[in-house]
Design a protein that fits this description.
By secondary structure, the chain is of the alpha/beta class. It is about 30% helix and about 20% strand. The protein is built from 3 helices and 5 strands. The strands form 2 sheets. A 3-stranded parallel beta sheet has the order 3-4-5, with helices on one face. A two-stranded parallel ribbon has the order 1-2.
Amino acid sequence: MLGIVTSNNVKHVKEVLQILNINQEDFKVIIGNQEVKRHKPHPDPILKALEILNCDKSDVVYIGDAIDDMMCSKNAGVDSILLDRYGEYKESIEFEKIATLRSLI
């Protein structure tokens, strides 16, 4: 099951998915900056997604491309992976890292 938790608004995310020919129906939930009062790194966006999905934290891995994403997942109590496309976070040993999303396959 896939979901999106973003600092962008949902309308923008849906437009990007359409441009990239990605079926938005593949994502069971999309939480944007208008769905919660407190944003990343606060845990509210991830917790809202978990509530909608009726998922347990132990069943979730959050993938993000910024330290705020990692802090949000840590604050929400879910495992996370930092997508470090450009090697920006070499110094950060606190988080599991990948360089591409293809690494997950």
